[in-house]
């Protein structure tokens, strides 16, 4: 086949394809009415902001958001970010925060779901109690834990002193070395129930017969879990881990309320840093450039998220 | 179970020991998780019934010597200014969350139905575009949305919050509901339409009742999300009388930073509505996740 005929072929296919799509869209015009409200809200509140953030990231903006006076600076905002030492510290914090919170929340949540899978007296009540931290507001959670970690009157410090493990209450969130782990403990407290709910739902889809058959064949508890239960949960695990990772990557309230990113940036993660740049120091351009970088990272994660979700779809053959 | 023990008498005690090991491990783990989850909340409650002086002691009073409901009385008393503020914040949160919940059900139900039933061009693209909203943090949207809200005159109104909260409730709502509709046989609707119902009637009379658990789960999720939201409310609202609870409490206690009993009482009361709502309806939530999201 020559190049020319290849092109002609492609053009013909394009011409036949386009009216086809349009005709189909016209045939299905009524269907769009159902999704239109959702799409319209999304467009206003998502597409426009994304466009605007990208534009703003190439400008220097005066404080007070007087946007008529913005000055085009090209890629300066980006180079400023990538060469600043704070950026790398905040990035490291974000990685530790996201990885530790996601991994531990998932493991604890999954283990709790497994431990609660067999029925026993009080199971419903126990499950309900374990879910509560996920339901209450992160602001309330931050204050509760701030009080627990309080450097003079905190209960953990008092217990440590009573037990003789410390001579005076430790400064959990006022010290550079302990602040991030302390906040991660709070975050896990709030996040593991989500993993537990998801995995509880997932466990209910594992066919009972398969487990029984494996038991008859002599598989022990661990083998039944590893070879029967776990493969069934691969999809829901992937989705759960991705959702947790994204939520943790995007968390704001706990570090913001408990420490405000301090001491000396030790608990600043990306989001709190962007917020401080934008609304604290009014450096909208730099904050937007940060957001665009964040956007790129999240799009990459989002690609895997969609793949994990559409993996489910494709099995049904309708995607 | 009995067949297993009959066919395998040897090694049975070893197996029982191993199973018992797992079971005891599971129990110990659950006890640990219960302590981890409940102790902070118990400490919140114990602190909230202490006086300000009793809370600031070292070593702490493990159990309050003179329990008092003074903090609660102060917060719920419409006569003094603290109580007025708190009740107003509570009311604002209630309005915003309820409006968000109603609107997101109205918007999500038809969208999810269309994504489940119809195959129009761009369906998958739109579906994943909606889901992708979950990926992005509030901060990315804050500056442009603030400018947008200012342009359409919604800054300092609850409308700005409702509009924004809609978008982060919608993705999960649509996803959950779509899973539900996927599991409702099309034949049911077809039967209704043969009997003379229009597509809309079939939808309202047949599909809606069957997807009630999904709709309830969606509503809970939207309500809790809106009730607890902080960052947009913190940015969009500046007038004291419009603040929602999370921001109102934060602003109040940045001025009175030592009143920990009051802060704990406020945290507790802020949590009560969503916790009660969730506990009442949680079985719908787990069922919706099982049928909607997990099983495909």
From TrEMBL, chain A:
Location of the ABC transmembrane type-1 domain? 91-305
- Tell me where it mainly resides: membrane
Cellular compartments per GO CC: plasma membrane
| Protein's cellular compartments | Cell membrane
| InterPro entries found in the cross-reference section | MalF_N (IPR035277), MetI-like (IPR000515), MetI-like_sf (IPR035906)
Membrane-spanning residues: 32-54, 95-116, 128-149, 169-189, 239-258, 287-306
Keywords in alphabetical order: Cell membrane, Membrane, Transmembrane, Transmembrane helix, Transport
Cite the Gene3D superfamilies for this sequence. Answer: MalF N-terminal region-like (1.20.58.370), MetI-like (1.10.3720.10)
CDD domains (alphabetical): TM_PBP2 (cd06261)
Listed Pfam families: BPD_transp_1
Example GO BP: transmembrane transport
Question: Family assignment?
Answer: Belongs to the binding-protein-dependent transport system permease family.
Provide the protein name: Sugar ABC transporter permease
**The organism of origin for this protein:** Mesorhizobium hawassense
UniProtKB/TrEMBL annotation, chain B:
Domain ABC transmembrane type-1: residue ranges = 90-281
A Gene Ontology biological process annotation? transmembrane transport
Compartments annotated for it: namely: Cell membrane
Q: Which UniProt keywords apply?
A: Cell membrane, Membrane, Sugar transport, Transmembrane, Transmembrane helix, Transport
Recorded hits in SUPFAM superfamilies, A to Z, give: MetI-like
- The reply on keyword Heme is no
Sorted alphabetically, the Gene Ontology cellular component annotations on this record are: plasma membrane
Which PROSITE patterns does the UniProt record give?
ABC_TM1
Membrane-crossing residues? 24-46, 89-113, 125-149, 161-181, 202-224, 260-281
- Describe its membrane topology: Multi-pass membrane protein
Protein family according to the UniProt entry: Belongs to the binding-protein-dependent transport system permease family. MalFG subfamily.
Q: What does this protein do?
A: Part of the ABC transporter complex MalEFGK involved in maltose/maltodextrin import. Probably responsible for the translocation of the substrate across the membrane.
Instruction: Kindly provide the name given to this protein in its UniProt entry.
Output: Maltose/maltodextrin transport system permease protein MalG
Specify the taxonomic lineage: Bacteria, Pseudomonadati, Pseudomonadota, Alphaproteobacteria, Hyphomicrobiales
């Amino acid at each position: 086949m020559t190049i020319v005929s290849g092109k002609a072929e492609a053009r013909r296919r394009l011409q036949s394809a386009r009216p086809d799509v349009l005709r189909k869209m016209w045939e299905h015009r009524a269907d769009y009415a159902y999704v239109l409200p959702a799409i319209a809200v999304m467009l206003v509140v998502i597409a426009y902001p994304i466009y605007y953030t990208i534009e703003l990231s190439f400008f220097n903006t005066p404080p007070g958001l007087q946007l008529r006076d913005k000055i085009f600076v090209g890629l300066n905002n980006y180079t400023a970010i990538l060469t600043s030492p704070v950026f790398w510290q905040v990035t490291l914090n974000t990685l530790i925060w996201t990885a530790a919170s996601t991994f531990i929340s998932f493991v604890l949540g999954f283990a709790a779901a497994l431990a609660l899978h067999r029925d026993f007296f009080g199971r419903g009540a126990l499950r309900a109690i374990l879910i509560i931290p996920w339901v209450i507001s992160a602001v309330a959670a931050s204050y509760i834990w701030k009080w627990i970690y309080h450097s003079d009157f905190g209960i953990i410090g008092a217990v440590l002193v009573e037990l003789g493990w410390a001579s005076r209450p430790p400064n959990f969130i006022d010290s550079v070395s302990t602040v991030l782990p302390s906040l991660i403990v709070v975050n896990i407290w709030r996040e593991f129930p989500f993993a537990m709910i998801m995995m509880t739902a997932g466990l209910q889809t594992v066919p009972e017969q398969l487990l029984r058959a494996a038991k008859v064949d002599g598989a022990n508890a661990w083998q039944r879990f590893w070879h029967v239960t776990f493969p069934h949960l691969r999809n829901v695990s992937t989705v759960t881990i991705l959702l947790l990772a994204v939520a943790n990557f995007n968390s704001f309230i706990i570090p913001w309320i408990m420490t405000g990113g301090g001491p000396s940036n030790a608990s600043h993660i990306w989001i709190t840093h962007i917020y401080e740049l934008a609304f604290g120091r009014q450096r909208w351009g730099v904050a937007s450039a940060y957001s665009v970088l964040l956007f790129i990272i999240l799009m990459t994660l989002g690609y895997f998220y969609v793949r994990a979700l559409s993996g489910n779809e494709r099995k049904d053959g309708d995607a | 179970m009995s067949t297993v023990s009959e066919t395998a008498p040897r090694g049975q005690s070893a197996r029982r020991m191993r199973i018992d090991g797992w079971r005891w491990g599971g129990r110990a783990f659950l006890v640990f998780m219960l302590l981890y989850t409940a102790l902070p909340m118990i400490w919140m409650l114990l602190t909230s019934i202490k006086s300000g002086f009793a809370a600031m002691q070292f070593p702490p009073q493990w159990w309050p010597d003179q329990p008092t409901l003074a903090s609660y009385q102060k917060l719920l008393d419409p006569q003094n200014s603290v109580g007025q503020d708190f009740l107003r914040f509570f009311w604002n949160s209630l309005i915003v969350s309820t409006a968000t919940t109603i609107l997101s059900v109205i918007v999500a139900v038809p969208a999810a139905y269309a994504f489940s039933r119809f195959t129009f061009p761009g369906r998958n693209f739109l579906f994943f575009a909606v889901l992708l909203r979950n990926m992005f943090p509030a901060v990315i949207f804050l500056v442009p949305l603030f400018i947008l809200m200012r342009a359409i005159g919604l800054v300092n109104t609850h409308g700005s919050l409702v509009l924004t909260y809609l978008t982060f409730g919608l993705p999960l709502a649509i996803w959950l509901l779509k899973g539900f509709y996927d599991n409702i046989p099309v034949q049911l609707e077809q039967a209704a339409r043969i009997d003379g119902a229009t597509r809309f009637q079939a939808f309202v009379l047949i599909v809606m009742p069957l997807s009630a658990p999904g709709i309830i789960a969606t509503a809970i999720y939207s309500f809790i999300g809106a009730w607890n939201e902080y960052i947009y409310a913190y940015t969009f609202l500046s007038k004291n009388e419009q603040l929602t609870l999370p921001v109102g409490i934060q602003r109040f206690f940045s001025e009175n930073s030592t009143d920990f009993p009051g802060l704990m009482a406020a945290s507790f009361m802020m949590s009560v509505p969503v916790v009660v709502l969730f506990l009442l309806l949680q079985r719908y939530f787990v069922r919706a996740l099982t049928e909607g999201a997990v099983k495909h």
